[in-house]
Amino acid sequence: PMAINAIVKGLNLGPDADLEPVITTALSKRAFDEDQALLDEEERIMRDWISGTLVRQGDYAPLLEKAAEGEPFLKDSLGVGKADNPYVALCRAECMLALYLMRDATDNARRPVAFIDADRLEILESL
């Protein structure tokens, strides 16, 4: 959820925005609780996920739009629609993070995409 929430905020800023404040804010929320503080490797992975996804949003948005054309009943769930709709924004962030993890993440940051339901994952894998 931490990475996805940060991606939602970053998507609202646009593709050329300075991402460091978004990343730092997301990571700092965990630092207040010693029991939930991230290890250095976990922080590096979160930075990678957030920045990697947001830097590629211009590549991923057309892919999601293409997928929504083929699956119009899943348009909102694929994150295609009005950016001011919180559900659509959340789904856009989830789908873009999933695309990043499947396509572009470094080997050290690559993880299984377990946060997306099977229908959306199947569509994203086909892109």
Total beta-strand segments: 0
Could you state the order of secondary-structure elements as H and E?
HHHHHH
Give the amount of beta strand, in percent. Answer: under 5%
Specify the structural class. Answer: mainly alpha
Distance between the termini: 24 Å
Structure description:
The protein has 127 residues and is mainly alpha-helical. It has six helices and no strands. The chain is globular. The two termini are 24 Å apart. The model has no long low-confidence stretch (mean pLDDT 90).
Blueprint of the fold:
Elements: H1 2-13, H2 20-31, H3 40-55, H4 57-70, H5 86-104, H6 118-125
Helix pairs in contact: 1-2, 1-3, 1-5, 3-5, 4-5, 5-6
Quick overview of this protein structure:
The protein is mainly α.
Task: Fill in the keyword field for this structure.
single chain, 127 residues
